[in-house]
Amino acid sequence: MVIPSNSSEVAASSNVPIARNLHEDVIVIIIGALVLLVAWFGISSQPSNDPASKPSIENRFKGTIAKFEKWKSNPVEAFYVKAKDGSGKFMGSVILFTFLALLLATAPIGVRGLYQLLPYVLAFSILFILTILAFVLASQEVIKQYNLEYVLWALFLGLIISNTIGVPKVLAPVLIGETFVKLGIVLLGAEVLMSKLLALGIPGVCTSWIVTPIVLISTFWFGQRVLKIPSPSLNMVISADMSVCGVSAAIATGAACRAKKEEISYAIGVSLLFTAVMMIVQPYFIRWAGIDPIVGAAWIGGTIDSTGAVVAAGAALGEEAEAVATTVKMIQNVLIGVVAFGVAVYWSSRYRISNQTNTSGVDDQEASHDEAYVKPSLLEIWYRFPKFILGFLAASLVFSAFPLLMENGGAISEALTKETTTPLRTWLFCLAFVAIGLQTDFRKLWPYLSGSKPLLLYVIGQCWNLLLSFLMAYLMFGVLFANRFSNGGN
User: Fold this and answer.
1) What is the pLDDT of residue 308?
2) How far apart are alpha carbons 290 and 280 in whole angstroms?
3) CB of 282 within 8 A of CB of 304?
4) How many CA atoms lie within 13 Å of 126's alpha carbon, on the beta-carbon side?
5) Is residue 206 within 8 Å of residue 34, measured between CB atoms?
6) Do residues 138 and 115 touch, judged by C-beta distance below 8 A?
7) Residues 13-31: pLDDT tens digits?
8) CB under 8 Å to 198, separation ≥6 — which residues?
């Protein structure tokens, strides 16, 4: 039996006209806004007894989203929160709250069209258990030391199931991995603040916003014209994943160019493997080569795909370097929306997507590659544009305005994101990549991987990215604006 791979396909296959439903991205934005609103109501400001001191910020949701502990030989240790006295408290109630919160947040999407609530709850429960397993594996002491992140394990678990025993029918309602990521990206907007952009000013903007589009466009051109990769959408997803910010960019760009799920999974898998290597090797190389830590940090922020990996790699160079690396990456993250819009415009003008069933094994986009140029209409661009990006941008603008509109707005925003929305986003991403792994059948992807061209594209593109990013980081942080940073120019 063929299992519908996303909620849109499910709705289309049912007797419920899809026109009667809200667009999936609209629902994602609404849910994201409600999550942020609920998180906001969990914040309270307690006045200080000292008039000269600022009020203390309290988050009622602090500690309610499960975060697994590090363990060495017994995985059960991951489920016990360690107290200062060495004792451990089982986090059963926290895990239950996390389950209910995520179920409530995702159910409106999961039950669209064909599925009812009970089948979705059952499927989500199984997916949740697999997600816990991914988190526990990533929490193992040795694995954690090498920063093999939960996303890698989540994708790996899903791939094992889908490419061996196959995906059980009961899991069909939760095969909406990209949708989970969309919701996570909307929540990510609350963390990408414009104040971060202003913190580094011109050096940070140049390092992130000049190199990134150059690498994206040139890598895509190289893949199409030199390597002649058969699938333009696979080429674009790899180029965006490698040049912008990894997972989030791959999902957003994949939505804009209608990439196949197998193509998105491949790009993400390669990216995660290279990220795991780069976050270890790059700081070591920077110290060995005697590169200024601030220059090296900006280089790390512009080249390592995962934000978490950027933080870890930057921290290896020092506290100030960690801040610079993280800020450069956050500035780069702002480009998610811009890149997605640009890809939507380009794809609507260059590639046609057939409405007929494709049985030839050839991508519809590939079949139309040599067709005449089609001038895009605004309606077509809007149709192709991944609308959840608007939720990301709205969240970024609203939370960026907090410090300007209210007293202690910055502290409130930080408490809300750090203790509530960021943990929820982490869970959503982990759920998503288990589901994406379950949706990925390498037998369908194999025709696009013949000759290892996609892997070669990533390697060449990343080398090009490393070179240009280093030159820009050195020019900005080591020469033109070196005096702005304590370690600059030393």
Assistant:
1) 63
2) 16
3) yes
4) 19
5) no
6) no
7) 333 333 335 678 889 999 9
8) none
238-254 pLDDT tens trace = 998 888 877 778 888 88
For residue 28, which of 432, 380, 381 has the smallest C-alpha distance?
A: 432
The answer to whether residues 395 and 186 touch, using CB atoms and an 8 Å cutoff, is yes
157 CB contacts (<8 Å, ≥6 apart)? Answer: 130, 133, 134, 434, 437
Torsion of CA 154, 155, 156, 157, to 10 degrees: 50
**Lowest-confidence pick of 1-5, 76-80, 181-185, 411-415:** 1-5
Residue 269 and residue 444 in contact, taking contact as beta carbons nearer than 8 Å:
no
pLDDT tens digit string along 252-268?
888 888 888 778 878 88
Separation of alpha carbons 233 and 194, rounded Å? 31
Sequence-ordered list of residues with C-beta below 8 angstroms from that of 489, at least 6 positions apart, any chain: 292, 478, 479, 482, 483
pLDDT at 33 over 80: yes
The Cα–Cα gap between 485 and 131 comes to 41
For the cut 60, the answer to whether the pLDDT of residue 486 exceeds it is: no
pLDDT of residue 36: 94
Nearest 5°: the CA angle 411, 412, 417 is 100
Rounded-to-integer distance, Cα 180 and Cα 437, Å: 13
CB-CB contact of 261 with 3 (8 Å): no
* Residues near 290 by beta carbon (within 8 Å), at least 6 away in sequence: none
Alpha helices, H only, 257-371: 261-289, 293-303, 307-315, 319-333, 335-350, 364-367
Residue 51 burial by CB count (10 A; 0-12/13-18/19+): exposed, middle or buried?
exposed
| Bridge partners (DSSP) listed for residue 88 | 82
Say whether 372 sits in a helix, a strand or coil: coil
- Can you give the pLDDT at residue 449? 57
Note the pLDDT of residue 167.
86
Tokens 């200062």 sit at which residue?
84
Q: Provide the percentage of residues in the chain whose pLDDT is more than 90.
A: 20
CA distance 26 to 388: 7
Write down the pLDDT at residue 463.
93
Which of 187, 190, 184 minimizes the C-alpha distance to 396?
A: 190
Q: Tell me if 129 sits within 8 A of 30, measured CB to CB.
A: no
Distance CA 409, CA 413 (A): 6
DSSP secondary structure of 34-76? HHHHHHHHTEEEEPPSSTTSPPEEEETTTT-S--PPPBSS-GG
What distance in Å separates the CA atoms of residue 197 and residue 205, rounded to the nearest whole number? Answer: 7
